[in-house]
Amino acid sequence: MPPPAQGKSPWAGGGTGITCYEVSLESFVSKRTLLPLLALLLALPVRADEGLWTFDNLPLDRMKAKYGFAPDAALLKRLQAATVRFSGGTGSFVSRDGLVLTNHHVGRGAIQQVSTAEKDYIRNGFVAATRAQEIPVSGMELMVLTATRNVTTEVLAAGKGLAEAEAAKARRNALSGLQKAEEERTGLTVQPLTLYRGGQYWLYGYRKFTDVRLVAAPEMKVASFGGDWDNFTYPRFDMDFSLFRIYVDGKPYRPEAWLPQATTPLANGNLVMVSGHPGTTFRQETAAQMAIARDAIWPGRIAAYLRRRAALAAFAATGPEAKRLATTARYGVENAIKRAEGMLMGLRKPGNLEKVAREEQALKARLGGDPVLASWDRIAEAAQRQKTLLPEAPLRENLGCALLGRTVTLLRLGTETRLPSEKRLPEYTEGALKATRDRYGNSAPVHLDLEQAQLAAGLREAQELLGAGHPAVQALLAGRTPEAAAQAAFQATGMADPVKRASYLAGGPALDQDSLVAFARVFEPLARAAQLRYQEQVQNVLDEHGGRIAEARFRLLGTSVYPDGTGTLRLTYGPVAGYPANGTLIQPFTTFYGLFDRAAGWGPEAEDGAWSLPKRWHERRSSLDLATPYDFAYACDTVGGNSGSPVVNVRGELVGLNFDSNIEAQAGYYIYDGTSKRSIAVDARAIRQVLTKIMDARHLVDELDGR
Amino acid sequence: MPPPAQGKSPWAGGGTGITCYEVSLESFVSKRTLLPLLALLLALPVRADEGLWTFDNLPLDRMKAKYGFAPDAALLKRLQAATVRFSGGTGSFVSRDGLVLTNHHVGRGAIQQVSTAEKDYIRNGFVAATRAQEIPVSGMELMVLTATRNVTTEVLAAGKGLAEAEAAKARRNALSGLQKAEEERTGLTVQPLTLYRGGQYWLYGYRKFTDVRLVAAPEMKVASFGGDWDNFTYPRFDMDFSLFRIYVDGKPYRPEAWLPQATTPLANGNLVMVSGHPGTTFRQETAAQMAIARDAIWPGRIAAYLRRRAALAAFAATGPEAKRLATTARYGVENAIKRAEGMLMGLRKPGNLEKVAREEQALKARLGGDPVLASWDRIAEAAQRQKTLLPEAPLRENLGCALLGRTVTLLRLGTETRLPSEKRLPEYTEGALKATRDRYGNSAPVHLDLEQAQLAAGLREAQELLGAGHPAVQALLAGRTPEAAAQAAFQATGMADPVKRASYLAGGPALDQDSLVAFARVFEPLARAAQLRYQEQVQNVLDEHGGRIAEARFRLLGTSVYPDGTGTLRLTYGPVAGYPANGTLIQPFTTFYGLFDRAAGWGPEAEDGAWSLPKRWHERRSSLDLATPYDFAYACDTVGGNSGSPVVNVRGELVGLNFDSNIEAQAGYYIYDGTSKRSIAVDARAIRQVLTKIMDARHLVDELDGR
Q1: pTM score, whole prediction
Q2: Staple partner for B34: which of A32, A553, B564, B607, CB 3.0–4.6 Å?
């Protein structure tokens, strides 16, 4: 199973485009250096409602003390069974007939995939009036976590008595073996999971669903009202939802549990809980790492995003179909830019890094003469090398072209599998091989023009970062411009065709005539060398010494703290709450009134109609109850991957749909600040009203109500 | 004529309370160090629409080039004649029968003055259904600028051939003589005015109106919707207006000009102009002064405001009548705190002071070996002394008690007038004497309990800042607590009674039995010493050397730039425009929709009902056109004193009522930043709708329409 993408993140974004960056971010930052800042100082008071808690280790006493409430086992079981895992996000069962609610931006790749220039469901929205009209989305897979097993004892036993390097290998092998056995035993898709950086090992077993159909989605204009401008901001007026249905054997699936609609109105101050799949956070990084992130990594990344945005804009300008194709990728890039700016804001906020450094000093003091203290220095050195290797990022990231990445996979499925598992690149080890093959085979449509434009942009970026005289650049361009080289690579390729792609894997003779395969044969060894350099000089050091620090922390703190995000199921909780910003207090709820205020305040023309509403919203306005809450803010600890998470009240009833967090929250990838970090949800009452009054989907509201 | 107070400023605030601080701010900062940053570098491009321009010297060519429009002489004449000067703010004639429109917060002191516990017009609003019901406001004075005369040649001639100190005195005397002659000649109230710090001298002649009556005001809840929280912020939903009428000889006054309602709807991007009385700005301060302002003056001032706020809250808690009395003062203090924080934000913004320093260096370079260069060093030294003298602020500021200030005036009217004019404190020189006597005689009601509470707070502050062992503190307290000393001072005083006050001035025998007079006799010499210390060691140096720098600048730049704010008539212009903030673009207009959104988003209970609406607003909601613009933002260069200014379109028609600026604008007292500095107005269309649909004042809308 691949590491889950971040919802609405630079490294996810639906079916096309910047999914290339999923790899890139993971190589830019250590994803295994995981423990919260909270863990640093037992002596400090626990920060309010911080935490990405696993369901097996919730701070129930703390909740009870603060809110007079803690969820019981039955509620937690129901919540877990009702939570659905999307690629890069979350969803939830909201009816007994397998209706799944998620964000529009999580479902957007699927909606776009089933759209055409004539039937543009992104633009116009969609409602299946009957189940027969629900549209299957090919290649879409959803998963539900049905079994978890703590295998810490077995895995640790495997390494016992061995030297450190041997022990690590033995533990990996043991975990991999346990995973295989569990898959065979249960028939589930089993994910081996390391929590607390080796403090705990788990197997997470998922039931996978592959017949997923689009049921309903509002117009993109209202789903992301305010567009890139309002993204990551609040007060907000986004109707960011979509509905899918899972089918099994051609029939609507009856889930083990589903979330009923709230029976009491949600109010300011009410406690809510969010169940979902928060992705990578960097709260455990050392102060030295954060300083490099602030001064080099994120500024470099933003520069890369800006190049990519320019390339996509140029592509989109070539015609209406190109514009439509580029939409999702452009949205993803804008999103990435703003998120990165939010993170930088947090890293640069006076006092923040100083605080991290102080807490680090305090932890070090508690560790006395422990040899682990040297690990901080090793990490600081690796972070410096990480900065030095930044210009090689395009080589490590398939030049930002997803189809080139797939072609590289094709070549490596041939070469890497001939090596012993421990010598392979990570994606080709025995445990990862199946997922890699599945990704290669994914039949979602590929748009060659867009892929070619992205390859050209990636080549130009490599040229700028490495210099025209760099051997890799010379080999790739061979005297041509980036655009000409990309054109040659896409001149005659079958890689977009699932049938041809499958035949290539079987070693079909056409392989040698494919222009993209030819390009990839030049590219792959250059990429491999860059990836290995990064792996050895940066990632391995960060993993090893980050692991040692984490181990020392786990020794001191154990499960009294939460493990950093791993894209797996977590629960977070906190009250509905405004927050101080912009010189005032920001309101906890927005309403339909505010939606029309913002639309009228800007008018339909401003900023390419960013705040314009579809015609029917104006026509049907008088039928709406304008005081109905639309979006709301709450003090939960969500991050990317929580997109589409259900927000439930203390009875486990659905009150909202998490879709974003405010600009202040972006700093939370590194540093949690409860005073102004807020999650943002669509209010469930607003979804009901929109389905009824705007989308003519009364039948879906009846279904939500269990009628 | 006294220097005008700043509208909505720490040193104004209606009839009571923190008006004490009017003096204080003027003594904290040099008010004669006036020239804009813009002036510093002729080589730099002119910053967009910066400028507090005098009507005689508008940048018409620049406006024409940028907007294809510049006001003609007729429009300017009409605008000047229609602009009304309030104490601490601005208003405008909006009907042929002398109806004057200003802000609720400018008229609030008057509204409060005519209110009682039973007829609480602050809380409930007020409309005079007939002219007979219009309520006279005793002591209220409004002025209209009817004649201006440039007397630069005469004043400069008076100093010709004399040594510097003698020349300054000769110029002052000449200006004072010209003022007297002009008053006798015209019968007007004549203000001698120094622009460009001595580059120009003017006489401004005002017609003064003393029969002013309250016509209409909405509920305070809607006038300052969002209260202290939303003050100085945007997007905003304030219906911050009030209407007065000027009477002459018992009949409605027919003004020379009045502003008609707009005939075309105002839209985003439209050019608007604002006519009003911007007060002191500090844009001309040296980098060294701004650094002291950032590091000592404003932090010290904020600490003083916080003490005062605590004292007022304690007073307000003593009963409902005390709470009512303290309202205006508390509002003023909150306002002052937020404004100070905004200024500090601007001063602390990375790069801002560095830019000032760079521009200063460039100006110095242009001045070559000019002896004026030494003035920067003298100012830096004086700023350091200013910091040292900060703890004496309470002594210089009548201990924050307005009635003590008046009692000091009483004593000084006796003593100072025996000295030759040039040896007197500034307020007692021949030119200023009449205004000082007028202020002493002002018959607005005085609330003894509130004054006593403020004196106690001021004594406690002096004790904290100077230390209990300081001779002044020991003399004032004489072994008592601050509260006991204040109680003794207010034990038996007639100073609140206009009749007794007048008799005291005539030297009536009761004077010697008055407890507050007795206290003032101890206080006055201490205050005088502190004031003289500050005057000699700080103010005179800032004036002298600030003047020399200003003179050098005026030599280089002349009237190609605007003079800093002097509380006199200015015009500023710019487009209706949103701005970047909070991670997004902020909408240019808000609407009634948004008002109800914010009310519903918070609910009626939150933050003491800060965002609750009066009952009739809910009851009559369905009669409103909710898409009507409510408030709007525009890129004009307004500051305190512009409160209540008319906002007009290019035809000179009323489109809005300036009432505030955003939090980003507060930095504009020091540093102009056109990207995010925005003025905020109530939209004239909203006022019409509220008068008609909520306030049952159709007759006033008819009057506005000239019917």
Answers
A1: 0.81
A2: B564
CB B421 within 8 A of CB B329: no
* Contact with chain B for residue A622, Cβ under 8 A: no
What is the spatial distance between Cα B184 and Cα B161, in angstroms, rounded to a whole number? 30
pLDDT tens string A122-168: 999 999 999 999 999 999 999 999 999 999 999 999 989 988 778 88
Is B598–A606 a contact, with Cβ atoms under 8 angstroms apart? no
Question: Which of B229, B233, B583 shows the shortest C-beta gap to A338?
Answer: B583
Residue A81, domain extent: 17-282+562-704
Query: pLDDT (tens digit, 9 = 90+) per residue, A436-480?
Result: 998 898 888 899 999 999 999 999 999 999 999 999 999 999 999
Reference B644, options B3, B6, B31; nearest CA is B6
Which residues on B lie below 8 Å from A600 (Cβ)? 589, 591, 593, 627, 629
Instruction: Copy the structure tokens of residue A19.
Output: 């999914």
- The single-letter code of the amino acid at B349 is K
DSSP character string of B265-299:
---TT-EEEEEE------TT--HHHHHHIIIIIHH
Determine whether the interchain pair B600/A627 forms a contact, defined as Cβ–Cβ distance below 8 Å. yes
Q: Is residue B506 part of a domain?
A: yes
**CATH code of residue A30:** 2.40.10.120
* Domain presence at residue A428: no
Distance CA B85, CA B93 (A): 11
Q: How far apart are CA B79 and CA B75, in angstroms?
A: 6
Instruction: Examine the predicted complex and report whether its ipTM is higher than 0.90.
Output: no
SS3 B639: coil
Q: Where do we find the tokens 């004075």? A: B141
Q: Judge: A601–B584 Cβ closer than 8 Å, yes or no.
A: no
The pLDDT tens digits of the residues spanning A548-588 come to 898 888 888 888 889 888 999 999 999 999 998 888 999 99
Instruction: State how many domains chain A has.
Output: 1
Contact A663 B601 (CB under 8 A): no
Q: For residue B420, is it within any domain?
A: yes
Contacts of B662 in chain A (CB under 8 A): 583
Quick check: is B6 in a domain?
Answer: no
Find all residues with CB under 8 Å of A415, minimum gap 6, and list them: none
